[in-house]
Amino acid sequence: MSDTEKHNSPQVEVENISTGPTKKNFLGIFSIENTTTQTQRRLSNRQCQLLAMGSCIGTALLISIGSALSYGGPANLFIAYTFWCTVVYGTNCTLSEMTVYYPCDGSWIVYITRWVGESIGVANAWQYIFGLVALVAFEITAFGLIINYWTTDYPTWVPITCVLISYILVEVLGVNIYGEVEFWLASCKVFLAFMMIFYTFFTMVGANPQCWVYGFHYWKNPGSFVDYLGTGTKLSYFEGFVNVLIMASFTIAGPDYVSITAGEVKNPRVVLPKVFKTVLYRLFLFFVLGSLCVGIICPYNADDLLSGGSKAAQSPYVISMKILGIKGLPDFFNAILLTTIYSSGNGFFYCATRSLYGLANEGKAPGFFKICLRNGSPIVCIALVSAGSCLAYLSLSNNSAKVLNWFIGLSTASLMIYMMLINAAYIRFRQGLKAQGIPYESLAYRHRDSSWICWYSLVMNFILLWIQGYYVFKPGSWDTATFLFCYFMPFFTIGIAFIWQILKRPKILKPEELDLITGLKEIDEYCDNYVEEEQTKCWCDTHINTPLRSISDSTIVDAYGFELSFYKDVPGIIQELKDNNVKIVAASRTWAPDVAKKILTLLKINNELSIKYFDELQWGEHTKVIHITNALKKLNKTYVNETKDGKSQKLGLDEVILFDDESRNKDVERHGIHFAFLPNEDYGLTRKLFVKGINDWAKKNGHL
């Protein structure tokens, strides 16, 4: 730096300047919070791939598919499931592009709100969350019914309570714990799905206790199609197909669950395209091939399929095992099925909490829903979803099968609404890109069929949404409860949208006015600076155990041998700042300032105690604006800037750069402070980010 540059140098407030990896252990003593308002990117590629596969497999695929078989027969089952897979794949094409472009918390809920319309987006978000809560209750209720396969000698509330408490614990422990739990549970689900495919092949060619080579026997006897009305007319067979198609829309999981994780995925621009690309293969393997297997192994008129006492007994696979006289395997199947059901409910619980969090982040839900624990778990969202999941206790006073059908009706309508709106958001997204001069070719991920397939998926979901409850309108078939559970969601969504539009009167945006930019800069910086290496970080008020001791100038250890050091580029940055007479302030909300101070007295930079490099330490429960203001008050009493003509000048807020890893602290810019975001707290302040922060400040203040 020249002398002139020294006089124009900013004063640096550093939040995330300490420490970097030594033996892959890490400390960030200047990012210490008792709570945060941010989720954290901790889901790895390995976890995302298994989550994506596991999200396809649940109670509906292994049990409820039996109802679809009884409605239409094996041929209709195969045709309807294959057809609906094409609809879901259309949504995958469109959603993948938007998610990779803007992988944020809330994902497509945010896209719909920003690009379709605020009122529609808010209504969609609330109906989706409500639908997810219904699915959580569905899975919890089904979990108890599976246990009935072995015994009914237990209070019904016990499994409901145990499962619900375990969901809460997994969420509270953090997304990395959730990801690991779901990784292994999803592994069980995938194993079970493959086991059923192999079971079908081997038993149909004669590898069963009866040595019966049954092949496609059930396609001939009782037949390929069901005479749904018993009239023998074409309409009767068509109604059977329509009912199977409705069940397919409930069973076939889309890419929406993958997209919801976007705000917590490591290196999303690399990981998410890989995950979305596998959707086509998963749809074929689990649903097209799965529906074919079910039609092969089980007759559509099996007694248990039509009137089984427990859901486990209604599974086509369990029925097949009984017909073939296979002992022991039904118990094994149902044991793994329990993990499948548990995993599905756990996934729905996660999606509901993250959707609510994303809604709050967009300012469309009360701000307290943004409150998170230190590990990024949105604790208030977890509390609300937990309360809603208590709907599962309805099964204590009603027939469990009836309650399950209620939940299926609500969630099916919810699914079709948001799948329809995802495609609407994509249409608006493409219009916005064109109107704002953003080349479509500049997107990090594109799909060749997305421009037309979005319309196909949108129209199919719209049609099925309104015909799914058609049977209540047939003469003599009216049932108020059935009507409500089939059509409550669309009217609920329309009602919320209407109320929001009346109360808030949000502007209907033209394509050139759509917000395609907000939040994109931080994501771009995170992805550009991402380093593919696992790191371990900690906070001195929660992870460090005293006493501390130094084992070298650059490394210290705590009482349990946990090694701490500066981030890689930090010592050189601090030395450069000090050499150029730039003031350095450290700020944090730490509860353990004594521990933080001890760490700075043990770590050295060029044989000097690192604490001597800091001109002011501001620690305590205050905002960054208060920290910086207090620091400047003290610095202006001790230090004075000299201008070119030798006159003294006090330090001002516009001379401060805050390097910080929490985007919420960007509010300091309202007070003239320059905010430099550190997108990846695993790697803290790097040389690249430091230079960028200085240059951005200089440009803003006319020094370049």
TrEMBL record:
Pfam families in alphabetical order: AA_permease, Acid_PPase
Chain segments annotated as transmembrane: 50-72, 78-104, 125-150, 156-178, 190-215, 235-258, 279-302, 332-352, 373-394, 406-429, 450-469, 481-503
SUPFAM superfamilies: HAD-like
Residues in Amino acid permease/ SLC12A domain copies: 49-508
GO cellular component, one term: membrane
Keyword Membrane appears in the UniProt entry: yes
Membrane topology, from the record: Multi-pass membrane protein
Keywords from the UniProt entry: Membrane, Transmembrane, Transmembrane helix
Location of the protein in the cell: Membrane
Principal subcellular localisation of the protein: membrane
GO molecular function: amino acid transmembrane transporter activity; phosphatase activity
Protein name, UniProt field: Amino acid permease/ SLC12A domain-containing protein
